[in-house]
Amino acid sequence: MSTDLARFSINQMTVRQLSMPELVDACTGLGIGNVGLWREPVEAYGLEATAKLVRDAGLTVTTLCRGGFLTATDPADRAAALADNRAAVDEATALGTDTLVLVSGGLPAGSRDLRGARERIADALAVLAPYAAERGVRLAIEPLHPMYAADRCVVSTLAQALDLAERFPAHQVGVTVDTYHVWWDDQAPAQIARAGAAGRIHSFQLADWTTPLPEGVLNGRGQIGDGSIDMREWKGYVEAAGYTGPIEVELFNEGLWAQDGREVLARTAERFVEHVIR
Amino acid sequence: MSTDLARFSINQMTVRQLSMPELVDACTGLGIGNVGLWREPVEAYGLEATAKLVRDAGLTVTTLCRGGFLTATDPADRAAALADNRAAVDEATALGTDTLVLVSGGLPAGSRDLRGARERIADALAVLAPYAAERGVRLAIEPLHPMYAADRCVVSTLAQALDLAERFPAHQVGVTVDTYHVWWDDQAPAQIARAGAAGRIHSFQLADWTTPLPEGVLNGRGQIGDGSIDMREWKGYVEAAGYTGPIEVELFNEGLWAQDGREVLARTAERFVEHVIR
């Protein structure tokens, strides 16, 4: 593996057009040693088969995406969410990763109560965090951009994520810092310092901000270097906070998904070196 | 005018399908005594003609939208922006409103420097604020939702807007609180209190948050009551902070624009009474 790519991790969603064996083969060919996996493709290929595939290739699984969606009020829905998150922890263990990324969930249908939804996340973490810790898995709360507050994630800032995480030991619950979600926030650098001082930066992800945003605003994350975010600046913040772990590139982008996956992977690695490392 | 509508102001953009005379006539017919105007339709109808029309109808112009776009680096562009904002102040004076809403502007093309852009806004305010104050006009910095940070407004939170405003006297520079832009922000209630204590809430606007967001995310603002925002809660925050002024409903919504403007206006007034007043 080249030194430039030592910390690079490719999140599987960036090249979701690649099958699991194609992804692993492409990583091996390009000297990429780290991958972030998603539950759905892992399930499709098979949990044990995926674990064996990445282990045999010598790949490190930096994160499993994702657990969460913990804001339901209905008791049956809440029980189902907890069961699903326990399963996600078990899958993380089987894949040999120590980090499960959590997307907290939006407002229940008809609700306008952000505060209540955030509090229900804390309630769920009280159940899930010890379960995960017993299995060697850390939960990494990912604040999502405020444009997702209603329908996807009521945790919109690193400050909110840390307010939740700090109710638990750092080895149980920390945060995911994703440039796409926090780049606009002038408080984020101080919150990264807060997170780093407590050992709570459990994942660091990159995507660039490009406009115009597509309908639904889900799949418009820009390739590294194409947008408004100074990637070196954010790498500097997490490093100043003591973070030396993998740097995962996670792009949801219809345009990239329509291209050859191996070429997208190669170009993403090049962009990482150009805009983050050198 | 009914007591329920005493504080209601219809922002012209909500019913942009109405001509200026149609808007004024519809307001008179519905017992609506306040309007927020936009520069482009005012210019189209004529500044003096608009001023006479609203004056003769007994309408109060609560705000003029909008000045701003103060983030350019190029000297010629900066000079043009200042000249345009002085013209906006003059138009506000002619229309008899004391409040000019400012949308600060996004990143210049190719720039990734949010901090620098925010500082250039302060530089421009140092020129514009005294000019406006001499003419009886207050500038109201409007933080826009963080999804506009790159291409429209680098001021994303009330805290950032107040950090800028507080460099100037309160009668010169304050803020616009718009529920659409700040509803996700758990720091906003405290910042509203900060703004109110200093007499810096110069405008209070409402729009609801509905999903999915449309492409470009500009024209998907929800009718009051259709979305995720508890309007009474936010009215409570500004009132607890001492604000007793007009409450302007400003919806950018392709769906509403495709309907009969008078019906939209009547329904918006009904929704205001239902979700904000009663």
Automatic annotation (TrEMBL), chains A, B:
* Record has Isomerase as a keyword: yes
Q: Does the keyword Isomerase apply?
A: yes
Xylose isomerase-like TIM barrel domain segment(s):
38-266
The record's listing under Pfam families reads: AP_endonuc_2
Q: Name one GO molecular function term.
A: isomerase activity
| SUPFAM superfamilies named in the record | Xylose isomerase-like
Designated name of the protein: Xylose isomerase
According to its UniProt entry, this protein's organism is Streptomyces cyanogenus
